[in-house]
Write a structure and sequence with these properties.
This protein is an alpha+beta fold. 49% of the residues lie in helices and 18% in strands. It has a two-stranded antiparallel sheet with strand order 1-2. The chain has a two-stranded antiparallel sheet with strand order 3-4. Helix 1 packs antiparallel against helix 3.
């Protein structure tokens, strides 16, 4: 794995975690949303991540195989899944979306769980920044050595 490959891996991690943070904040913002354009309450979303091989040209891959270099693996967002759990029924007869019995369908979002996921995504983003900066320092040190 070259230094530039490690930078690409770190950037892919930062991109994926930023996408996760955006999705989690959307879940938190809509924790009380009872109306959506599709009808019914807001449905919680979750990002699906996958490890993918680094995009290399055929020649680069052959050189990597010839040198017995490990191929680097990046992370990418492959989709967003929607939580299919049933909405939570809350008794609130004065709510405009209450049914005849006085129950309102609320999103099945646990804000505490979302906050834990947010903290995890934030820490992972910071870890990727640290790895990126370490790789960058190594690259700059190598350039300083080559100056003589």
């Amino acid at each position: 794995m070259s230094i530039l490959s490690s930078l690409n891996v770190s950037v892919s991690g930062m991109t994926a975690q930023r996408y996760r943070v955006n999705t989690i904040t959307e879940n938190i913002a809509n924790a009380q949303t009872t109306r959506t354009p599709q009808g019914g309450p807001y449905r919680r979303k979750e990002v699906v991540l996958a490890a993918v091989a680094n995009d290399r040209t055929f020649e680069q891959e052959l050189l990597a195989q010839d040198r017995s270099v490990d191929t680097s693996t990046e992370v990418k967002v492959v989709g967003v899944s929607q939580d299919e759990r049933a909405p939570v029924l809350k008794y609130d007869p004065g709510h405009p979306d209450a049914n005849e019995e006085g129950y309102v369908e609320m999103p099945n979002i646990n804000v505490m769980e979302e906050m834990v996921n947010l903290a995890t995504a934030s820490r992972s983003y910071e870890a990727n920044i640290t790895a990126f900066n370490a790789s960058k320092r190594m690259f700059l040190s190598a350039l300083e050595i080559s100056k003589g």
